[in-house]
Design brief:
Blueprint (H helix, E strand, L loop, with lengths): L10 H7 L1 H9 L13 E2 L3 H6 L2 E6 L1 H18 L3 E5 H4 L10 E7 L5 H12 L3 E6 L5 H4 L3 E4 L12 H20 L5 H23 L2 H12 L6 E6 L3 H16 L2 E6 L16 E5 L7 H16 L3 E7 L3 H6 L2 E5 L8 H18 L18
Parallel strand pairs: 2-3, 2-4, 4-5, 5-6, 7-8, 7-9, 9-10, 10-11
Antiparallel strand pairs: 1-6
Helix pairs in contact: 2-8, 2-9, 4-8, 4-11, 8-9, 9-14, 10-14, 11-14
The chain binds 6-O-phosphono-alpha-D-glucopyranose.
6-O-phosphono-alpha-D-glucopyranose binds next to helix 4.
């Protein structure tokens, strides 16, 4: 079993380290010589893609968080309205869909019953369905009109890591594909983003080389009396779904009460949870470019610090402003805002694994959870 884990203590640790390769594999060969993105199986014409006037992304769990990130990218790159919904909710209401709606279903296993039912619900209403899945030939891709496979390889740990990062990579490709087939408004931006995507695996590897500080924080927290109570995660823009994913990892692995919030919502309720010593993990956007967003999260950090929070900030390297406000910082390489989740998620995965290990949890097989949920 030790050999299967490639020298790591757990499959999850191994899979965290496989992320640069998994993302590189998922991108490889997907951009043809004309710079067009290539889907694997497409039972839809370019005209079908041009006719799309609305996108729904439907998924569960970690895959849903990949969908949330994608909404920001798709709406920015394509100007097509995009909604993201949990499969178990989508299926039992009356979403407004027709032939010009693209429903993107994201499922690592390709067998999640909630997502499969949502897919069938969409097809009953004649919507086009594009699947993003890690499992070739599984039910969800088989029943979809188009497929883009992630190439994470087999993910053994119940808590998803490399599958999530490859879902993000695939989702970015889908967003760029939509932008391209529809005539590109941001042609320069799209080609710059493609270059940045190709550079992402190297940056993810850098994040992985620099995980010891977050491990230390997790161990300190596990020993402190506040550490085992609750952890809050805050973010804005694509940092918000990253906050949700960080909190989900901690719930799954450490059995801690962890919640992710849109930082702007703090004042509408969650800030009342802050007590002296409450750990708050803040996902900080790049200080360059969208500095407004950066200013806003710095204010949020100040608000929670004023109430006693202990702030761990995930920020871009060299972000001196964040370093001067937070108690601890974990730096990630510079990246365009929309692609930053490929980097900022990784320290949160490590945070969860380390805290859970310190609390004596079973990392690869958390209680009550299954890798693939094939019942509703
Ligand atoms: C289960 C797993 C999660 C996963 C979710 C969706 O709850 O424990 O890690 O994110 O299912 O799975 P899927 O295979 O559809 O992506």
């Amino acid at each position: 079993a030790a050999a299967e884990k490639g020298g790591f203590e757990t499959f999850m640790a191994k899979e965290i380290h496989e992320q640069p390769q998994a993302v590189a594999d998922t991108l490889r060969g997907r951009i043809d010589e004309t710079g067009q993105i290539v889907l694997d199986e497409v039972r839809m014409s370019d005209q079908d893609f041009r006719d799309i006037d609305k996108v729904f992304i439907v998924a569960c769990g970690t895959s849903y968080h990949a969908g949330l990130v994608t909404k920001y990218a798709i709406e920015h790159w394509t100007r097509i309205p995009c909604e993201v919904e949990l499969a178990s909710e989508f299926r039992y209401r009356d979403p407004v869909l027709d032939r010009s709606t693209l429903v993107v279903v994201i499922s690592q296993s390709g067998e999640t019953m909630d997502t499969l039912m949502a897919l069938r619900h969409a097809k009953d209403q004649k919507a086009r369905v594009l699947a993003i899945s890690n499992t070739v030939g599984s039910t969800i891709p088989r029943e979809s009109d188009a497929v883009l496979y992630t190439r994470a390889g087999i993910e053994v740990a119940v808590a998803s890591t490399k599958a999530f990062l490859t879902q993000l990579a695939a989702c970015y490709l889908v967003g760029l594909h939509l932008a391209q087939v529809r005539g590109i408004k941001y042609a320069d931006e799209v080609s710059a983003i493609l270059d940045e995507l190709v550079a992402a695996p190297g940056k993810i590897a850098k994040v992985i080389e620099n995980l010891e500080p977050i491990r230390q924080m997790a161990r300190d927290l596990a020993e402190s009396k506040d550490g085992a109570a609750r952890v809050l995660f805050i973010g804005r823009h694509v940092g918000y779904p990253v906050a949700l994913e960080g909190a989900l990892k901690l719930k799954e692995l450490a059995y801690l009460h962890a919640e992710g919030f849109a930082a702007g919502e703090l004042k509408h309720g969650p800030i009342s949870l802050i007590e002296d010593g409450t750990p708050v993990v803040a996902i900080v956007p790049s200080p360059r470019g969208r500095s407004l967003l950066h200013d806003k999260i710095i204010s949020n950090i100040q608000e929670v610090k004023a109430r006693g929070a202990k702030v761990i900030a995930i920020c871009e390297e060299g972000d001196a402003i964040t370093a001067s406000h937070a108690d601890f910082v974990v730096e990630t390489p510079a990246s365009p805002t929309l692609l930053a989740p490929l980097l900022t998620t990784v320290p949160l995965q490590e945070f969860a694994i380390e805290l859970a290990t310190a609390l004596g949890r079973d990392i690869d097989q958390p209680r009550n959870l299954a890798k693939s949920v094939t019942v509703e």
